[in-house]
Amino acid sequence: MRDRPAAVARDERGFTLIEFTLATAIGALITGTLVVTLFYFNDLTTRYRDSLSVSNELQRAASLLNHDVVNAAEGEIEADALELVIYGLEEGAFGDAGATPVPITVTYALQPSSDQMYNLVRDGQTIARRIADPAGFSPVGAVSETSQITVTITTAVDRPGEDYDQDTAAELVFHRRPSKP
């Protein structure tokens, strides 16, 4: 066998086991920190998206309710439903000066959905989901020409399997300008 000189062996040596173990531990620590950070930001983004979705639904519901309540000529307010009669033109009659307004009935109701939540429904179409408490329409009774209608809604963003709940309460107040037939 040939022996190498000691000077050459020192110059060509690789990593020691301790150096390799230390580098692996530091790499694992950095990778673990990155994974936890990415998981946290993903969760935060999901919560923000859920909250934004609920906010958009409430805004759409408020816009529809505002249009219908302001223009209602008559109707009935119940604690869990709102029926309004709005006078409009038949389809295709826009621009016809002699067209006679026709009554259009619009109904808002609360329908139970899963997990003790409710949906706000307009003529059978869901316009707001995730309502935590049954929304209230008030004051109960006939819609009069001077009435103001209040809709109280509490929405919730619940994450299954987590302790995270975000409730948002909104009280929508509509002052009426009834349309005349």
Short description:
With 181 residues, this protein is an alpha+beta fold.
Task: Describe it.
Strands 6-1-2-3-4-5-7-8 form an 8-stranded antiparallel β-sheet, with helices on one face. The protein is an alpha+beta fold. The chain has helices at residues 6-11, 17-71, and strands at 72-77, 81-88, 102-112, 118-122, 125-138, 141-142, 148-158, 165-175. It is built from 2 helices and 8 strands; from the N terminus they run ααββββββββ. Strand 4 (118-122) and strand 5 (125-138) form a beta hairpin. Helix content is 34%, strand content 38%.
Order of SSEs, N→C? HHEEEEEEEE
Helix content: 25-40%
Radius of gyration, Cα only, in angstroms?
32 Å
**Number of helices in the DSSP assignment:** 2
Offer a few descriptive terms:
2 helices, elongated, 8-stranded antiparallel sheet, 38% strand, alpha+beta
Question: Secondary structure elements and their pairing?
Answer:
Blueprint: H1 6-11, H2 17-71, E1 72-77, E2 81-88, E3 102-112, E4 118-122, E5 125-138, E6 141-142, E7 148-158, E8 165-175
